[in-house]
Structure formats: structure tokens, C-alpha cells
Design brief:
disordered N terminus, about 750 residues, 27 helices, DNA polymerase, domain 1, five-stranded mixed sheet, DNA-binding, alpha+beta, about 40% helix, D-amino Acid Aminotransferase, Chain A, domain 1
Length: about 750
DNA sequence: CAGCCTCGAGTTCC
DNA sequence: CTCGAGGCTG
């Protein structure tokens, strides 16, 4: 035995020992993670161990052990890019399409800021580049991270790729310590044509897709060869302000070395914006890159700060879009889809046609009124022209995404074309499809016995904001739903799947698209979700009107599943009376409209109310507590309580609850500002701030703003001219402050 | 009771 | 992304 052989032998010993150790540690971590114990090591440590194990096994395949956890859970990597939580949310923009939208925008801002007619309001206008937004984070002048927008909160880390783009500086001179630059990655028309002609990679439909595809390359070397460009137009987190105005801040970005759009202008009013919009539109074809509108922003940054944000958009900006591109094609036929709530939605199947660089073959038709050429109030749309199978129709992509039908060419309509007969029965289950008075959609009455509704509800159950089970998406749900041997027909079945597949994976793993590893992975993902946050569970149930936000509100209010279910059960008798009254009112309203007389709503409600049996004090209290929650109204509450009281629905929920453990909501975090968690009321005239602004400010600081003073009010802000509210506050001993004091509090936040 | 704003539901294509 | 409906304010 030579020296080198013995050394190799010793190395093999070491590798074997290391592999054995890694297998043991990873297996233990897997077990702790998937059973109900707390994980024993961090995700990062786990990944490192597993990667090391994989590496060794690849280098020494003969030493790989049959019981290695890498065999069970699959090779896993290449999940794409890492996730990045934006230091400051990347918002989208409100859209405008008409001159009126622009004047409304200006008027809304003026009234929010309480500006007099003589006070100027400057705005910037710049082309809206049709690319993808990218946030660049610089720390002490060094580019440290580039992230895509994603959902606005969490994006993808594409730093290595961004570093290959020539327009993106990697070092900045004289920049703030922390600087997040926001801008758009795009590809010019010329570069796009050359890229497609070169035959490198696939053929892209349009420059935007080409830019997106190029930026999201796993290998930065590929991105480097793609001719990507970047315009900077804004910023996120900052350690110090860039300037006092939008215009100067963008100029500062240019001075730091960024490309900024040369067509940016400063305007003084709506008229100026529209003139700029018209000029930019004229140049659209000759710019050499795609734009889809003009973005307006309030110039004064202190105004921007006062205006703040709505749910997903800043109040101080508007994207004024150019008219959408359109194309004519033939409508082959109209099909009906059944949604999770039973809604029958008509979809147009089209002869494929290119609109705005994308081939479109389907378009939404909304509902039966839309096909007939009416909106929900009965007013004509498309001048009342209906849509028939075989018609020639004009397609556009609303907001550049959703294909819709703008118009119908009657001159090309076949003589034997007949108006579309909207089905009165569900095409999936045959149950009657009813349109409730006042409703615009027709709904299948089959409930959970309708396979389409059942499968759509299941898809909702596993969706992102609900149970979010890895490896169990819409496709898999369809497959399992139809499976005769191992079916998933209701949520509880998901959690009994592994137990039912007792032939040792025999049935599942041999199926197309399912290997042993993916089955193991799926079962592990399901196990992981047996413990589920209460809000997700409520949302997952798919009760009408109960979406993500309402679910979170309910979870916060009740804290635990037992508290919620108990309250809903107690409220049931009271809810019944409300639901019945609301039904009668909707019916009366529709009938009155049809007969052209005034609806007697109050009378109708009172009549049903007095005829219904008294639900009792306990039920009344539970109901009052439910509808007293901020954001929970009677319709939502009625839908919720009714769902829980329905036998079949409740039985399904109970079967699910045998399989899972809802996690209680933890107590809210410590208050951060002196008014967080408090209820405020404004009264009288505020002189330096409008009501809307004060409200938005208070809410941003964690307070709730109510309309009237009650025992639950913590603070009354009274301006001059305060009347009954101030006296009531005095009566109740509520603290009253004036506007100066309010400004101090608001300023402090 | 009208007029905001936000949420929920449904939809398409990459 | 859009539409319609729900919820809340003035």
C-alpha cells in the first residue's frame, strides 16, 4: 500500500464518518421539524448541513447511504432567487384614462391638502416605461442589493444580475448613507429585435417579456449578454432627504450617475399635465422603447408626505395611461365557468389574435347583463349591442392584462345568429342557477354537491393566503378530486391522505408526475400545516364575503377557534332575523325598481323584523359584538353565521377540525405612539389640516377614528365651532384637546 | 342617502 | 386588473 493510497483510505474514513454524522443530524432536524416539536436548528443551519451532505454524496456516490435524508426529500435547490423584504413597500400606481380622471386627481389632492385656489400645486410628468420595476439598495455608496417588486412587500433578490447592467452604477459618490433607488429595467426596440434575431435563447413576445426574462436568469453571465437598461425615477428607504421636490430629487439621482428620463417636465395644473401627456404620446413611436402612459407626481415632497398612501397606491401619484391597443377577431363560442361561490361566469373563446404583443384566445364576459349589452343598473353598454356566438368582436387588454370585449361589428353578424341564451341551470351539476334580486351574477344552487363548486373551494383552501400547501396546487387538486382510489373531496381528506395511502406509497408514487420523493415532500408539507394560524383557517373556509382582511380581523377579535365558533353559534338565532330582513329588503328594492315606484325599505324591514321570533338576549349580545367589530358589517356577519349553522357545511368544518390545530392569535404588540390603539374623534373646524388628512394621519399612527363620541372614545380633538360632540365628551369625561395639541402629537409620529 | 374607499371575487397570460 | 358590493362618513 503506497503512502497516497493510505492517505486516500483515511480520507474515505473521514468522509464516511462525516456523512454518517450529517445523516443523523439532518434526519433528527427533519423529524423535529415535521412532528410537533419546535425545530432544533435554524433554517440556515439546516440548509448548510444538507448542502454539505449533498456535496459529499455527489463527490463520493459509492459512499452515499440508502437512508440519507437527501434521498427522501429530493435535491431541492434552484428554488430560484432568494426573497427580499423591501425596507419600504414598493407601491403600484393608481390609473387614469381620461382628462376627467386627471382633473379629479388634482381636485382630490387640493381638497385633501386644503389648498386655496390661489395656492400653487406643481406636479411632475414623465413617461411611464413599460418594463419591470427594480429597487436598488446602496449602503455607503455601494450597491448591496437589487430586488424585483414582487407583491410589493417581498420581492426577489436579483443582485448578481442587476450588477451586470451598464446603466446601474455599483458605486456612488456623495450619496446618502442609505439609499434605495427605484426605477425601471427595460429593453429598447432595437436591442429587442436584435436579440430575437440572434437566436440566443427563446423568442420573446415583446420587449417587456424579454427584459423580465433576461433579468430572471439563474446565470448572471446570461443576463450580462442581454442589452438591459435602467431609468431611475424614485426612491424607497433613505437616511436623509434627496431634495425638497420630486423634480430636484430625480435631478439628484441623475447627478449621482443614474439615467433619468429626459422627457420629465414640471407642470402647474391639470391643463399643463394634459399638454405634456399629448406631447409625449406624439413621440411615443419614435422613442425607441415602450411606454404605456405618463406618470404624474406631486412635486413638493412635504405635500407628498402629508398625502400619504392608500392600501396599495400613493395618493400623490397617477399613471395616465394611453388608450389600449385593440384588435378584431371572431368569437367562436361562449362557455360558462362555475366559481367557488357558484357564480356562473361566461368566457369568450376567441380565434387567437395578437393584442399588445400577446396572443389572446379568451376574454371575460363578466355576466349575463354584460353579454346582453347592459350594465348592472340596466344602462346600455356598447350602445346596447349584445354579443353573440360567431360575432366579430374588438378585443383590448384592460390595464394591459385582462382581455375584454370593447365592441361588436354588427355588419359582419351572420343572419342566423341568435342572442346568447344564458343557462338557467348549472352546466356542471344541473342544479338550478338563481339570480338573487339586485345581484348581477347567477349562482348554482348545488352547493357542495356541485363538483365544480367543491373543487373550486378546495383550490381556494390550498391557495397562497390560506393553507398554502407546497406541492398541492390547483392542478393537483383537480387530479385528486377525480381520483377514484385516493380522493380529496373536502378539506379534511387532505389530512387523511397519507394514512389512507397505506399500501406504502404504492398508489401515489407510480402516478404521472409523482415520484417517491415528491410524495414524501407532499406528505411533509401537509403535516407542516396541521398547525395553522387562526386567520388562515377562517379565510380557507371560503365563506362568501369573508376574505383575507375580514379573516384577520375576526381572528384578532376572537383570538381562538373555540371563542369564534362559540360566538357564531350563539349569534345564530339573531342572525337569522337579520338575514331574512335583508333578503326582503333586496327583494323590495328590485321589485320597486321594476315597477318604477319608490321602494318602501324601512317598512319592509320593520315588518319582517316584527314577524320574526325574538332570538333572546344571549344571541342578541353575540350578534351585536360581531357586527360591532370595525370592518364587519351585517352582510358579512350574516354570511358567516349562516355558513356555520348549515348542517352539511358545519359537519365538513368539524371533520377538518379533527385533523388540524388552529393557533391562537397572540396579544397585539406594545403600542408604539401615544395614540396607538386609541379611539379618536374629530369635531369642529380643523384649520391647518383637513379631516381626511387628520384621519389618515391618526390611522397611520395606529389610532382608530370614529364619527361620534361614546364611552369608548379616548380623545376628542375639537376645533373652533365644536358643538354637541364637545359637550357630550365633557359629560363622559373624555379628554378634549385643541388643534395645536393634535399637531404636536401628529408631528411627533 | 350619496359618495368615498377598500375588500372580495373572478379573470387572463407569463 | 376591474367590477361590484360592503362598510363607513358627512
Amino acid at each position: 500500500m503506497t503512502g497516497s493510497d493510505s492517505k486516500a483510505g483515511a480520507d474515505r474514513q473521514d468522509v464516511m464518518a462525516e456523512i454518517a454524522g450529517l445523516v443523523a443530524r439532518v434526519s433528527a432536524a427533519d423529524h423535529a421539524y415535521h412532528s410537533e416539536d419546535a425545530p432544533v436548528i435554524s433554517d440556515a443551519d439546516y440548509d448548510a448541513l444538507k448542502r454539505r451532505l449533498q456535496q459529499l454524496e455527489e463527490l463520493h456516490p459509492d459512499l452515499a447511504r440508502p437512508d440519507s435524508p437527501t434521498r427522501r426529500v429530493g435535491a431541492a435547490p434552484s428554488e430560484g432567487f432568494g426573497k427580499v423584504t423591501h425596507a419600504q413597500r414598493m407601491m403600484s400606481l393608481a390609473n387614469g384614462f381620461s382628462r376627467e380622471d386627471v382633473t379629479d386627481f388634482i381636485a382630490r389632492i387640493r381638497s385633501f391638502l386644503n389648498l386655496g385656489a390661489d395656492q400653487p400645486l406643481a406636479l411632475t410628468a414623465e413617461p411611464k416605461i413599460d418594463g419591470l420595476s427594480l429597487s436598488l439598495r446602496y449602503e455607503n455608496g455601494i450597491l448591496v442589493q437589487a430586488a424585483t417588486r414582487g407583491d410589493g412587500v417581498v420581492g426577489e433578490n436579483v443582485t448578481a444580475n442587476a450588477m451586470t447592467i451598464a446603466d446601474i452604477p455599483q458605486r456612488l459618490q456623495g450619496a446618502p448613507e442609505i439609499l434605495e433607488v427605484r426605477g425601471e429595467v427595460y429593453m429598447s426596440h432595437a436591442d429587442f429585435a436584435a436579440l430575437n434575431a440572434s437566436g440566443e435563447g427563446k423568442i420573446f413576445a415583446n420587449p417587456r417579456n424579454a427584459a423580465a426574462g433576461s433579468l430572471r436568469q439563474i446565470d448572471p453571465a446570461v443576463t450580462a449578454r442581454r442589452p438591459l437598461r435602467y431609468f431611475a425615477y424614485g426612491w424607497g428607504a433613505l437616511s436623509e432627504p434627496l431634495a425638497d421636490t420630486q423634480f430636484d430629487a430625480v435631478a439628484r439621482l441623475a447627478a449621482l450617475g443614474f439615467q433619468t428620463n429626459p422627457l420629465m417636465r414640471r407642470c402647474q395644473d391639470a391643463e399643463g399635465l394634459i399638454v405634456t401627456w399629448t406631447e409625449i404620446e406624439k413621440q411615443r413611436a419614435s422613442l425607441g422603447y415602450d411606454i404605456d402612459g405618463v406618470v404624474y407626481k406631486v412635486d413638493d415632497l412635504s405635500y407628498q408626505a402629508r398625502l400619504g398612501f392608500r392600501a396599495t397606491t400613493p395618493r400623490w401619484a397617477l399613471a395616465h395611461k394611453f388608450p389600449a391597443e385593440t384588435a378584431w377577431t371572431r368569437l367562436e363560442r361562449i362557455e360558462i365557468q362555475v366559481g367557488r361561490t357558484g357564480a356562473l361566469s361566461p368566457v369568450a373563446r376567441l380565434a387567437p389574435v395578437t393584442v399588445g404583443g400577446v396572443v389572446v384566445s379568451n376574454a371575460t364576459l363578466h355576466n349575463e347583463d354584460y353579454i346582453a349589452g347592459r350594465d348592472s343598473s340596466g344602462a346600455p353598454i356598447r350602445e346596447g349591442r349584445d354579443i353573440r356566438e360567431g360575432d366579430w368582436v374588438q378585443i383590448y387588454r384592460a390595464g394591459d392584462v385582462i382581455p375584454k370585449i370593447a365592441d361588436v361589428d354588427l355588419s359582419r353578424r351572420a343572419d342566423d345568429a341568435v342572442p346568447f341564451a344564458f343557462p338557467t341551470h348549472c352546466p356542471e351539476c344541473g342544479a338550478e342557477a338563481i339570480r338573487e334580486p339586485g345581484d348581477s351574477v347567477r349562482r348554482c344552487t348545488g352547493g357542495l354537491t356541485c363538483p365544480a363548486q367543491a373543487v373550486e373551494k378546495l383550490k381556494h383552501f390550498v391557495s397562497r393566503a390560506a393553507f398554502d400547501i407546497d406541492g398541492l396546487g390547483a392542478k393537483q387538486i383537480e387530479m385528486f378530486f377525480a381520483d377514484p382510489a385516493l380522493p380529496i373531496r373536502e378539506p379534511a381528506h387532505i389530512f387523511t391522505l397519507a394514512a389512507r395511502d397505506d399500501a406504502g406509497l404504492a398508489r401515489l408514487k407510480n402516478r404521472e408526475g409523482f415520484g417517491e420523493r415528491s410524495v414524501e415532500k407532499l406528505f411533509a408539507a401537509i403535516e407542516e400545516r396541521r398547525r395553522i394560524p387562526l386567520a388562515r383557517l377562517i379565510f380557507a373556509l371560503g365563506i362568501r364575503h369573508v376574505g383575507e382582511v375580514a379573516s384577520a380581523t375576526l381572528a384578532r377579535h376572537y383570538g381562538s377557534w373555540s371563542a369564534l365558533a362559540g360566538a357564531l353559534d350563539r349569534a345564530a338565532p339573531a342572525a337569522e332575523r337579520h338575514v331574512r330582513a335583508e333578503e326582503a329588503v333586496a327583494h323590495e328594492r328590485a321589485e320597486a325598481a321594476a315597477q318604477g315606484r319608490r321602494a318602501r325599505l324601512k317598512e319592509t324591514r320593520d315588518r319582517v323584523w316584527s314577524e320574526a321570533p325574538d332570538p333572546g338576549d344571549e344571541a342578541r349580545a353575540a350578534w351585536a359584538d360581531l357586527v360591532g367589530i370595525d370592518g364587519i358589517g351585517e352582510v358579512l356577519a350574516g354570511s358567516l353565521v349562516t355558513a356555520f349553522a348549515q348542517e352539511a357545511e358545519r359537519a365538513g368544518i368539524d371533520r377538518l377540525l379533527e385533523q388540524i390545530t388552529p393557533l391562537d392569535v397572540e396579544a397585539a404588540p406594545e403600542a408604539r405612539t401615544e395614540i396607538s390603539g386609541k379611539t379618536l374623534v374629530f369635531t369642529g373646524t380643523l384649520e391647518r389640516m383637513t379631516r381626511a388628512e387628520a384621519k389618515s394621519r391618526a390611522e397611520a399612527m395606529g389610532a382608530k377614528v370614529a364619527g361620534s363620541v361614546s364611552a369608548r372614545t379616548d380623545l376628542l380633538i375639537a376645533g373652533p365651532g365644536a358643538g354637541s360632540k364637545a359637550s357630550k365628551a365633557a359629560e363622559l369625561g373624555v379628554t378634549v384637546i385643541d388643534e395645536d395639541e393634535w399637531l404636536r402629537i401628529a408631528g411627533a409620529g
